[in-house]
Protein 1
Amino acid sequence: MIAAPELQAEFHFHQETDTHFSSDTDFEDPDGKNANPGKGKSTKKGKKAPGEKGKGGAGAKGGGAGRINGHHQENGVENMMLFEVVKLGKSAMQSVVDDWIESYKHDRDTALLDLINFFIQCSGCKGVVSGEMFRHMQNSEIIRKMTEEFDEDSGDYPLTIAGPQWKKFKSNFCEFIGVLVRQCQYSIIYDEYMMDTVISLLTGLSDSQVRAFRHTSTLAAMKLMTALVNVALNLSINMDNTQRQYEAERNKIIGKRANDRLELLLQKRKELQENQDEIENMMNAIFKGVFVHRYRDAIAEIRAICIEEIGVWMKMYSDAFLNDSYLKYVGWTMHDKQGEVRLKCLTALQGLYHNRELNTKLELFTSRFKDRIVSMTLDKEYDVAVQAIKLLTLVLQSSDEVLTAEDCESVYHLVYSAHRPVAIAAGEFLFKKLFSHRDAEEEAVSKRRGRQSPNANLIKTTVFFFLESELHEHAAYLVDSMWECASDILKDWECMISLLLDEPLPGEEALTDRQETALIEIMLCTIRQASECHPPVGRGTGKRVLTAKEKKTQLDDRTRMTELFAVALPPLLAKYSVDAEKVTNLLQLPQFFDLEIYTTGRLEKHLESLLRQIGEIVAKHTDTEVLETCSKTYHALCNEEFTIFNRVNIARSQLLDEQVDKFNRLLEDFLQEGDELDEDDAYQVLSTLKRITAFHNAHDLSKWDLFTSTYKLLNTGIENGDMPEQIVIHALQCTHYVILWHLARVSEGSSKKEDMLTLKKQMRAFCLMCQRYLTNVNTAVKEQAFTILCDILMIFSHQIVSGGRDGLEPLVYSPDSSLQSELLSFVLDHVFIDQDDDSNSTDGQQDDEAGKIEALHKRRNLLAAYCKLIIYNVVEMNTGADIFKQYMRYYNDYGDIIKETMSKTRQIDKIQCAKTLILSLQQLFNEVLSDLGYSFDRSSSAFCGIKELARRFSLTFGLDQLKTREAIAMLHKDGIEFAFKEPSPHGEGNPPLNLAFLDILSEFSSKLMRQDKRTVHLYLERFMTFQMALQREDCWLPLISYRNSLQAGGDDDTMSVISGISSRGSTVRSKKAKPATGKRKLAEAEETSSSSDSMWMNREQGMQTPVMMPSPHLTSTVMRDTKRIRPEDTYMGVYALPPEQPQPQQHAHAQPPQQQHHHQTPMDYNTQVTWMLAQRQQEEVRQQQERAAMNYAKLRSNLQHAIRRGTGLMEDDEEPIVEDVMMSSEGRIEDLNEGMDFDTMDIDLPPSKNRRERSELKPDFFDPASIMDESVLGVSMF
């Protein structure tokens, strides 16, 4: 075998169209039965006479067919090649192989050349191996030649191309190799020619650096090896049979022994042994030449192929391959970085462990790699974790002693996984471990029912496991995990009822109270699973369409469940009526009943018993959860579609009548007591109010007119100030339900106008009441009032009229400024607090982790309620500034809520959102000034925190500068005005008090488009004096850094609103630039927008929010003029000054008027042209004088000649070109970045060096590749 030499680079090859056949050639039999669908043959080939070998090894064919360069020809017309036949897959693979074998028998060189070209073309190579190359070149030379002719432009090859045409190519390719070896296994593969040539070729291709060659040849070699293993297995079986026949014949007595037969058997055994040795040599060559190198290939797909096939070999021919010499490769590869490869390892091992006869050969491997398999149950790839659990299940079935208790426990907890396939696999493991072993005694009583059934112990085991796992809130997950493998046990509700109601048998241990609670919870989950037929919340993507069989099973389960529990539920409720947790779970069962069975099954008396038990439970309990469950149960039973509705409705009305009458009577006495409130009376009022509130949640109690009573109660609480906390909370909630039910009736359209007026009056009175309770001393009361108030404002906002409900417009209610202020103050006081400051926790739960989590959850709900008001424009958007400024400090607790709020507000109004963001930064800046004074250290943690917050805000604007252009411009405008708002009390020579804010504002400079940077800079100069521009002290550094951030990337932008006047500098750059690429799209979008003659210049000045326009500028040196420019000369009506109040130049700190941006009449077009031409002439004269004084003549001349030679510019382009090139050093570096062809660098240099050189050219140049880990680029895992 000759391996191809190492190739040092990727290859690009030319396509030879003269020897390539179209894939669209139709392969059909023109002569019906007389033609074989082989490779280009239309007639049967006759035997070749000696010496009939033509050029290229092509012999004469029947019917005049011949071959040229490996292609069939018939009457001068080329037929399809072997590659095309296999790709189309229209012919039976065996007939294709038979035709090739027949061709091989006639002329093996030509046929073998076809096979070689088949492998080359299956790799996607367009080159063809000619007969001359085949005869005179070594394999390494052929591969090198094919590599040179490889077309790698697309990077795709048949094994990776998508589409229906190539979908089955891989399977056809693998089938062809298997059939080829199978059909040649008796003679051709032993001729020491065909197999040696093919193996040598595939070995050489598998060592190529071209991925297509390596991938295709590895797949072919592995499938060839698999076929040879099958041949070796057959030879081994034949040898064993021959040996047995020989032994049997030799053991006969001499008289009956047939010596001729013995000799034949010996000769046959010798031939088989020779063939076996030959096959083993072939397999050894493939294994050592291909597998050993490719199982650790850099490409995961190639590694996966190797591992998949070695698993087939070990399973197929275990005597030869199932040993540690081969198993070690699978064990090592289980540590592969790619999940695809790890998955192949596990599936290969599953095939081995499934056969229990092989367990003894796997003992050493299991002991060595068991820990790795157990750890893979927590693999980050869920598919790998599932297969690891299934493999452990097979290991468990093979031997109970292999896995330790710790190994099993690591799988047990996965039944609570949120990923359903992992949980189901873990549930099957749990079932095999705990439930699959039944002794003979249990089998004998398998027909017993109830408590004596064999499922009783299994149900108890499930309860014990659930309690030991200490995840009591996840019973639904446990049931769902075991539903597919243990549904018979989980749906044995008769046994569960018996365990709860019947007395234990003699010698049987009764269930404890904790176990009974767990059993009831599991029973509820099984009923829900059987009734709904979909996974619990948090596991699965939602409801799926049930099959007909599943629907029938669902109906049968609901029927059986209803028949059982309609009878058993009342006794269960009576037994556990005082236990709130048990009762809560039991009362949920009727929600899953088929209520029609109460009538059809004549179970009305059990319904009466159920209603009676519910009434007693309502009278006994005051727990909110129990009462709400009773309310939901009544709601489920009160279904007008069923005949039981009247009976249930009457019972519900009687229950509510009693409770409302009792409440009114107790309330009247309670309010008359005044200051001397009796605790017993307060408890009676509270318990009754709890029951009414719980029922009002699901039932309309409007006919009892509860608003008057609850409002009177709340009003008394405000006046006296000593109302018990829980009474106020439930009174607020009950009144809220009254309002909502009233709105529901009004929304139906059947109510009168008086009802709407009443609702409006009640709603506004209730809002005022809640606002008054915001100042209550009790935190729980304030939180309840705040939550309800946010809900009311949300419901009755302008959104209420959407969806064609214009009739509800009188109900729209908008909060006034005082209410908005109080709501915001509540959020700041009760949400943005440290965990230790939360005094709402009781019973010493401050140190309890669960209590902290619950308190945080409550605060998150409060913040979310207020943020909804901001998002839906119920309150002013600028109130969000106080929320946004907490983004960094409380990022872990509320970061997701605040970020989503910023995103939604930006979608509503980009400019107003930007104003809100800058306002939040200004508030934080003012806080720093008040805490640290005006001469604070800018390196302090507080100031650095504000800068980091600004950076985070900047990132939220995304990468599309066009979408956020106006918002970013307005943000800079407000920031500049704030920075110069407060002049220094020490005089003009000192910086403004807020000047350090420019350091924060510079974080947003990168979001400005280039032309907008120029405009913002001009606006900044309006507030600057000549002396400010010359200052270099530390106190002026924020101004210097901000100006630099605006000048970076903006000096080379010489676009103008007047076409042809000042665009020549950018024309030079555009001639140098490459065509549009992914990196340049944004920059080109900017230049396109800046070249528009009237984009912002002709915008109407009467817009509500002014936006920045690019001021016309002529050369790249305008921004470096240190001379003070008058505002009216540099500013083109973007932020207009009122003409009657010009800004004096001598007041550097003077603030432009904020309220008169829209009143200045903009310049007309002719005035703009005249102004810009005059400015251009003045700038050119001044710049020429400066260059002459600085002795730039020689440099200028050299640059001119160089540019003329490179671009062929006319003489009149000289001045703008020199201006464009003679920039500051920073400008030149930026220009180098702009004009550099990075695609050329990508070819000449490795990626890491490219990134290094780019960063040296300009440190802040953004390269997307810099965020990638270089260690993952083309690096092998080994």
Protein 2
Amino acid sequence: MGGWSPQARLAGCLDVNSEQHNERWSTSKDETLSWYLAGDATPKESSPFIGSSDAEKGQQYDGKNMALFEDEMDTSPMVSSLLSSLANYSNLPQGSKEHEEAENNEEQRKKPIKAPQMGTLMGVYLPCLQNIFGVILFLRMTWLVGIGGVLGVFTIVFMCCSTTMLTAISMSAIATNGVVPAGGSYYMISRSLGPEFGGAVGICFYLGTTFAGAMYILGCIEILLIYIVPQAAIFKLEGLEGPEAEAALLNNMRIYGTCVLTLMSIVVFVGVKYVNKLALVFLACVILSILAVYAGVIQTAIQPPDFPICILGNRTLVRKGFDVCAKTVEKENGTFTTKLWRIFCDSELLNATCDEYFMNNNVTEIQGIPGITSGILAENLFGNYMEKGMIIEKRGLPSVALQDDPFTNTNSYVLSDITTFFTLLVGIYFPSVTGIMAGSNRSGDLQDAQKSIPIGTILAITTTSLVYMSSVVLFGACIEGVVLRDKFGEAVNGNLVIGTLAWPSPWVIVIGSFFSTCGAGLQSLTGAPRLLQAISRDGIIPFLRVFGHGKANGEPTWALLLTACICEIGIIIASLDSVAPILSMFFLMCYMFVNLACAVQTLLRTPNWRPRFKFYHWALSFLGMSLCLSLMFICSWYYAIVAMGIAGCIYKYIEFCGAEKEWGDGIRGLSLSAARFALMRLEEGPPHIKNWRPQLFVLVSVDGEQNVEQPRLFSLTNQMKAGKGLTIVGTALEGTFLDNYDQAQRAEQSLRKLMETEKVKGFCKVVVSSNIRDATSHLIQATGLGGLRHNTVLVSWPPNWKQSENHQTWRNFIELVRETTTAHLALLVAKNISAYPSNGERFTEGHIDVWWIVHDGGMLMLLPFLLRQHKVTTPQHSVRSQVWRNIQMKKDLTTFLYHLRIDAAVEVVEMVSQESDISAYTYEKTLMMEQRSQILKQMHLTKTEREREVTSPVSPAGGAETPREKAHMTWTDKCDGVKDKPPGTITPGSIKDMFNMKPNQSNVRRMHTALKLNEVIVKKSKEAKLVLLNMPGPPRNRTGEENYMEFLEVLTEGLNRVLLVRGGGQEVITIYS
């Protein structure tokens, strides 16, 4: 049968003794995947592929039946040893002394490690409950319902709980796709999205956890100073109104918060193990408090608790300083005023002067907890948003207030302390659903993390979501609206509002919430430093490495100190309602990237993405990510921008300064997928002229030590590319690949190092072949991938090409010119490359001269524009385009450059004709009529004649060298190391050649053209910073190739920097937009 069989079997080999047999391991008879394992019955290695010494390696593989694979044993472990190491894997918390000793101490490595025994309930479910339930539920939930209404707050709760549920689904998929060591969410994100995202989000999660500690401490102080011992306040609130009272409260929070933070930090520093042991006690307080609330709800249906509130008109009064909710009381002796009367009047007498509103309105007493059967739910369905300083009013009660009546006795009314709106409520509430990653943070302590984390986390979120949603409805159905909007319970004798609903006593909630907030604060101060320590020890953020150190037992001392300092910032803010949105930002960003990581991994379908948790989908992850992003801007758009700015700065810092880490992250896979898609698109057709840019292939040579011989080529590349487009640097080595692999690696490292120094962004390639010519040809043909190929080759002029030992150099160069022409590639030849400017140099004045002789597709016009984009060549440079023998072209070229949007000064150069000069027309006709092979044969000198030239005496006749003499002396040199003779040197051989030369010979005419052009170019462009010149093509025949090199040498003689340009046969610049 063709195709893949649905039943797959994986076979491995295990060396066994002669008395033993191979075992077949199969999960069941119905399974389609069977494992055949064979190996040594007693594995000899203790560490098969990590940290093994040479002595160990010599004793690791002594099986008698695996001799066929003994050559691979040094690099590849046997299956038996691999499975043995994985079975003994231990996942201790990062930074612990025991973990370090287990890795480095041989004796402790051999000790059996106790397997973790925590299950789903104790390891995931209960820790998640403890971290999710918190201060917001006890201190702000009733106030949220009163301000936002049952429907509004239910929407907020549903939206936030849906976000955490979707995040938990994504997290479960990531957590079950392999082992998650210490670090929790940071580990998952960094290994899924890379060190840049991991470090940025890890720091955000650390800041969120730290500010959560500040929030819990502020909640603890609020419970202590307002509900337990209000007389302990240092700054007394009695007699203060408005801003003064608010400032006194915040100062109390700051002082006591700092003291509690210091105490908690000392506890964490001294004995963190006691914090972990008390975790169950704190959790019990939370659960008992919640059960007390539900019991109180049931109690209200039978017998509602007695918590009367006093209302003047429709204004809620602070229940302090009076006991009877009435203006007067009737007694046997008559009518007497009450304490309430004395608050609003200037005396106890009935004819006293009283507050106008007090006199015009009646006093009403209603029950603060009417009960679940009272029907109060209908009144609390919708929100009642308030401005700061507004009086909390009871709906439906009559009120008589004059418009001009001054607002007095503010201390007697229950006022709104902040301006409220929907988005504020979202930011305050969201911290109450965080803490869903407590289970993944404990993955090393779980017996089966891949089973416990999804089940425990999702069950915990389901439980807490049901509690929150039911609490919203029950609070709205049991508690009076004015009491719900009373944040600090001033209308109910200063009781905690949720405590008034609890059974059997409000003190159950007060004491339970106090201990739960203390425990949550300790947990935050315990977890945040360890998260920072995990980030520091990864080494991706250099300036944080100091926080990876700790005490002798591995406790993160420096990280704890930094955490306490950051936490103090939240304490200084002192307002629970202001701190909550800050940590909401950081947690939402963390959750957003968890969803993004799952979505990216799912869409990429990488082979390693095989989570055991199957109930996930990329659409759910994107929905969760969208919800997180939306909630960030709903909570506070400016906090969201600041949080993103912090994450962005950390991302760029890690990208530029962080340690290089390769974790097989999804971003790398995403980049590969995007690159593949882009390459496939590039294959659809050649690029349009408007999109054409030089995609450079820089061909360099290396010396015997594999160091680059032309480093300035990299500078020129950077100046032409400015970091844009494709750049490939290649070099060729002579020899065989097997013998020269190490040299090739060193050469590649040398190229990469120089590219990094010169800031050349691109790739490098080293090819080893039997000769340099073939290696260069292979580079030009095979470099690139698909549509991402080079279209321009940049090389340097071969130095010392006239020397006899370098005769192959110029032959390789000419072959390179021929190959680029055949491949329709543009060619750039940099002459005198050592004189080119480095990236650190600056040209503040001068010109770039372009000599445009033949049309090459516009390459000569495009290159100066690209060079002027770099800081080396300032934009003030002008480009003088000088044209050959056509005055009429000046106007046309000026118009052409104007349409090309290129600033240039056009100058027409006319060649001055003399009678003795050879005309261009004759040169062209002769070149077409005469066969090149016959001319070269006539001009060729034999070896005997060259030797006679060398031994001939030098004529004493001197004088200036004429162009004609220079032409003859140059092309007869033959590049065999014979130095050019001084002007006026006469030999019998040379006299014979001079008389035999005729003006119609091709080489003479070419040399004449080269001399005349050089004369004009030197005259016009002697002071130019760079000269760009059309490069003539090589001879079609192999005979006389050295003459071609001589022509180019004469053409560029006397010029400092010359860039010979040969187009690739296609237009590269256009006047159209």
